[in-house]
Amino acid sequence: MAKTSAVNRNAKRERMAVRDKGKRAALKAIVMDRTLPVEDRFDATMKLAQLPRNGAKVRVRLRCELTGRARANYRKFKLCRIALRDLASSGQIPGMVKSSW
C-alpha cells in the first residue's frame, strides 16, 4: 500500500486539474495565437504562471486504484501489475487467463 498522504495529494491534484482545465485552455489559446499583440500574449503568460502548478493535468500521477502504487500501472484497468495478476489469477477479470505455452 502506498502512503495515504501521497494518494490524497494525487487526488487533490486531479480535482484541481478538472477545476482549472477551462481557465488554462483559454489562457493557452491566447498565448499561442500569433495574431494577437505581444503585450496581450505576455499578460496571458503571466496569468498562466500565477495559476497553481498542481492544477496542471501533467502533475497528476497514474496510481493503482486498489493499492495506490505509482509504478507499473496498466491504464486500461487502472491497476498495478501486482494487483492485476492477483485479480486475474482469482478469475475476477473477465476474459483474462494466465498465459501458458
TrEMBL record:
Keywords: Ribonucleoprotein, Ribosomal protein, RNA-binding, rRNA-binding. Residues 11-20 have a biased composition (Basic and acidic residues). Gene3D superfamilies: 1.10.287.1480. Residues 1-20 are annotated as: Disordered. One of its GO terms (biological process) is translation. The keyword Manganese does not apply. Pfam families: Ribosomal_S14. Part of the 30S ribosomal subunit. Contacts proteins S3 and S10. Belongs to the universal ribosomal protein uS14 family. This is Small ribosomal subunit protein uS14. It comes from Limobrevibacterium gyesilva. The lineage of its organism: Bacteria, Pseudomonadati, Pseudomonadota, Alphaproteobacteria, Acetobacterales.
